[in-house]
Amino acid sequence: MDTSLIGKIFVITGAGTGIGRASALALGKAGATVMVSDLKGDLAQGTAAMIVNTNGKAEGFQLDVTHSDQCNQLARKVVEKFGRIDGWVNNAGVSSMNRLVDLTESDWDFNMDVNAKGTFFGTQAAARIMTIQDPDPNSGLRGKIINIASMAAKRGNAPFLAHYVASKFAVLGFTQAVAGELAEFGITANSICPGYVATSMQERELAWEASLRGISVDDVKKLYVADTPLRRLETAEDVAAIVLFLASPLSDFITGEAINVNGGSFMD
Ligand SMILES: NC(=O)c1ccc[n+]([C@@H]2O[C@H](COP(=O)([O-])OP(=O)(O)OC[C@H]3O[C@@H](n4cnc5c(N)ncnc54)[C@H](O)[C@@H]3O)[C@@H](O)[C@H]2O)c1
């Protein structure tokens, strides 16, 4: 089976660092032309340059996923230049941590806006293009939507993260609804549920959780590893491998799924 992504056009959000960057690099290495976007345009350009410097094809864009007009504008720009969008990866996400009794409306809005609403806007922009483009002659599919959710999208027991959990459960439900609605167009939609991934988001969470629990950052890290049967922190590349799988023809008959990649932290 041909697993190459040569000739495929992928858009990815929040890909200036972390899981998004690792996923963009993996897509680029597999031959896709990668439209790398991030809230921070310079970081997006940096990831795109990493792909181009290793003989891949990429461009970098500033994009705030909480603005539907920006998502639609990027989608139209990509179609004007390349004629289609084969895949859209909604990766941009944020977190904050607080005890329920101290959570603020702005904690709630920040997490819901980027994680849930941003996934809605990105998916909608992609679907507006994908539903009216020709199917791929090999697969019969018009496109693939890949949403980065979280272990916290299935396991609500995540201290100090009630608002984040709500936003990621929303991503899972939304993805299933989209998969059902878009199947008749030959568009798949799936989620990925990572565990404790060592990225800048985790660095921030380690510091918040240490302070909320009154223990050291190292001790929090030990708790994360102890909660992971494979006994290490997850890497961004562990997640990128599943993005690549969902982007490739290997997953053409999978839709509406939420794939765990968490070293066994949560099995469902
Ligand atoms: N790190 C983890 O442990 C973990 C676990 C499960 C799921 N996730 C999810 O994986 C995704 C990536 O997380 P990460 O750990 O790489 O985070 P990160 O903070 O390292 O990177 C996130 C990127 O998203 C960008 N971003 C933030 N707000 C944005 C917006 N409004 N529009 C566009 N881009 C925006 C940031 O600039 C940053 O480059 C997120 O959806 C996160 O919720 C992370």
The strand count comes to 7
Radius of gyration: 18 Å
CATH class label: Alpha Beta
Looking at this structure, what is the CATH superfamily? Answer: NAD(P)-binding Rossmann-like Domain
User: What are the low-pLDDT stretches, counting only 5+ consecutive residues below 50?
Assistant: none
Secondary-structure class:
alpha/beta
Q: Could you tell me which ligands this complex binds, including any ions or cofactors?
A: nicotinamide-adenine-dinucleotide
Strand content: 5-15%
Domains, number: 1
- The CATH topology label is Rossmann fold
The mean pLDDT is 98
The CA-CA distance between the termini, in Å, is 29 Å
The coarse silhouette is: globular
Biggest sheet details: 7 strands, parallel
Number of helices: 8
Q: Strand order, biggest sheet?
A: 3-2-1-4-5-6-7
